[in-house]
Design a protein that fits this description.
The structure holds 2 protein chains of 2 kinds. Chain A is mostly helical. Chain A has 23 helices and 2 strands. Chain A starts with a helix and ends with a helix. Chain B is mainly α.
Chain lengths: 497, 154
């Protein structure tokens, strides 16, 4: 209690809340990521006491990850990479006039997911961190394959088209300097291509710009003058409690998936969201509703991505190993404050550790309040005529992509993938597997190749190590369970007749 | 679509022999290993699509509606092409004209094309450009191209 009270002084509260407000603005801007929000905040924290700086960093990351869901739900443009999966059902709900419920679910489930993630961080962080450290290249390979397998689960319609999209993303991920040999692959001598294809402009183009093109193709000029979001754009909290209670198992499941994936160094909130979405569909009683405006499809990714933030702090605090890019910046900042993250931090500076835990918990409360006002501020913009909003979202998407690496090349990518995304949807090739392939491609290739180097080209350790074998078994069960069940039923029904 | 898959895999398989070989056994660890693996999967997908796609192509042609709605859509197709052209123009001219000039021109032209009156389009263009400038350049300290306005300090 003393720890919590010590945080409620104006010197801590004011910068902490202001950072969280900034997090909402940055997170809701397509192209600007939660990592960028943290990077913007860090220089300001060098002149403050460590706990003020850490409160600002923690707060900004929680709000930025949530705020990415606002444009994802209303405009089909993910504000941050972690909101990529939130687009699928959030935007569909919005099209059905249930956007207010979707965004209210986003906010409350983000808060709850964050809360559960932090509670797991507080209670079992040393155990989880030890488990996470047992992961080598073999286990990371399977983890990435498991993430990729979710694309098969989330694909609607033709499985082959899903595979085409996924492999397309994987192929695109091979562009650029090879991680092992330094050889520039498919770069054709261009410096921009040597740096690889960043998935953020691709995602903005595929989801955002393609949606603008689709809108132009399907809306008459007369309707262009109407409000962009015709339904009420307030967050609808009336039925949220009921929906959340109905999906309590899913919230728990997604929080645990989010925290576990967050705790693995190198994975992050975006992968956590996709895996949670895929698992939600796999375990749902109504999997066919996913992608058509399913409440479960909104709850799972938004819960998991905020839970993952708590998870990323587990290896960071316990071993001083960053769980993602945000905690990598945080570790740098902690060293600047004169702190040494790692096992000794629990013995040496227990007060500070307790303060960090308390900040993470209280931030969830602030997120609920500030998120509510953030939704109000942004939904005001959506009441503008559709043609103005479309122009606005186009320019914000383009400038956001430029700001990522101050590169005109990334702006070009937004436009190219906007057109490609539109064409892909015209021929019913799903977009999410393409993004998953692009995100997970480097992780799969790197771990597969390094694993093979270690074993002189033998694939056996990918199956013989305990955790690897477990992952392989889970994957096999995931894909063989349904066909085997059908086969057994068919045999039994034949036997009965 | 099958043809596209085969073409992409053909390009990959034509380029990867120029990549250096891996250090360990059978080229499994070289830079060409993963792209080649993906190209093989794409060939399989391409062949599958060609076998199943040609049968469905006839159905698509049969159900294509030649109605008034599709004629109206032709005008919208032109609008979509203009939107893509404006975006491409913006990308090409961003560095030269600079963020402020390029954005103002882009937004006015885009909104005009989408049916906003010129005075309103100009007003919104100024508001959006100003907001982006304040947020990105002033608040987040992200440098955007100054272009032809570089000598006046933007």
């Amino acid at each position: 209690m003393d720890t919590i009270l010590s945080l409620l002084s104006p010197e801590i509260l004011i910068p902490w809340i202001l950072s969280m407000v900034l997090g909402i603005f940055v997170g809701a801007m397509p192209g600007l990521t939660a990592t960028m929000a943290v990077a913007l905040i860090v220089p300001l924290t060098f002149h403050t006491p460590p706990i003020v700086g850490l409160a600002m960093i923690l707060g900004v990351s929680f709000t930025a990850i949530f705020a990415g869901d606002i444009p994802a739900t209303f405009l089909r443009v993910p504000g941050t990479p972690a909101s990529g999966a939130a687009v699928l059902d959030g935007y569909e709900m919005n099209k059905q006039g249930k956007g207010p419920l979707a965004i209210a679910l986003d906010l409350t489930c983000s808060t709850l997911g964050g809360l559960i993630g932090v509670l797991i961080l507080i209670t079992v962080s040393p155990i989880l961190a030890t488990f996470a450290l047992k992961f080598t290249h073999f286990e990371y390979f399977w983890l990435a394959v498991m993430g990729l397998s979710m694309s098969a689960v989330i694909t609607k319609g033709s499985t082959v088209k899903g595979i085409i999209a996924m492999v397309g993303g994987l192929i695109l991920s091979t562009v650029g300097v090879d991680i092992s040999t330094g050889y520039p692959r498919f770069a054709f001598g261009h410096t921009y291509l040597m740096g690889g294809i960043n998935f953020i402009p691709v995602m903005i183009g595929l989801f955002g710009i393609s949606e603008v093109i689709r809108s132009i193709m399907t809306t008459s000029l007369n309707d262009m003058g109407n409000a962009a979001v015709s339904a009420s754009v307030k967050a609808d909290f009336r039925s949220v409690g009921r929906v959340m209670f109905r999906n309590k198992r899913l919230i728990g499941q997604s929080s645990i998936i989010g925290t576990l994936i967050g705790a693995l160094p190198g994975a992050g909130a975006d992968i956590a969201a996709w895996v949670a979405y895929g698992m939600a569909k796999k375990t749902s009683k109504k999997p066919e509703a996913f992608g058509t405006g399913s409440e479960e499809g909104v709850i799972a990714p938004t819960t998991a991505n905020n839970a993952a933030l708590g998870g990323t702090w587990i290896p960071a605090l316990v071993f001083g190993i960053p769980g993602d890019t945000i905690t990598a910046i945080v570790l740098g900042a902690m060293m600047m404050y004169g702190l040494k993250p790692g096992p000794l931090v629990f013995q040496g500076d227990r007060v500070l550790v307790n303060q960090i835990f308390a900040v993470a918990l209280i931030s969830q409360g602030f997120l609920l309040v500030l998120g509510f006002f953030g939704i109000k501020a942004f939904t005001w913009f959506f009441k503008f005529p559709r043609n103005v909003v479309m122009a606005g979202i186009t320019i914000f998407s383009i400038i956001g992509a430029y700001a990522l690496r101050t590169s005109v090349f990334d702006v070009g990518l937004v436009v190219i993938f906007g057109v490609l995304g539109y064409l892909m949807e015209r021929v019913t090739i799903p977009l999410p597997p393409f993004i998953l392939g692009l995100i997970l491609g480097p992780m799969i290739e790197e771990n597969l190749r390094i694993g093979l180097v270690k074993t002189d080209g033998s694939f056996w350790p990918f199956f013989s190590r305990p955790i690897s074998a477990f992952f392989a078994l889970v994957l096999a069960l995931l894909f063989l369970y349904e066909p085997v069940k059908k086969l057994v039923r068919r045999r039994l029904s034949r036997g009965g007749t | 679509m099958g043809v596209v898959c085969l073409a992409v895999s053909g390009v990959i398989l034509a380029i990867t022999p120029s990549f250096p070989s891996g250090q360990a056994t059978a080229g499994l660890t070289g830079p060409a290993f993963f792209p080649n693996l993906l190209a093989i999967i794409y060939i399989l997908c391409g062949v599958y699509q060609l076998r199943h796609g040609t049968r469905r192509a006839g159905d698509y042609r049969a159900i294509r509606p030649e109605t008034a709605a599709s004629l109206a859509a032709d005008g919208r197709t032109r609008s979509a092409w203009i939107f893509i052209g404006l975006n491409a123009g913006f990308v090409l001219l961003l560095d030269f004209l600079g963020f402020i000039v390029a954005t103002l021109i882009f937004l006015v032209l885009l909104m005009k094309k989408l049916g906003v009156t010129l005075p309103k389009a100009a007003l919104y263009a100024f508001i959006f450009t100003g907001t982006i400038y304040l947020l990105f350049v002033r608040l987040f300290a992200i440098s955007l191209p100054s272009g032809i306005l570089s000598h006046v300090g933007f």
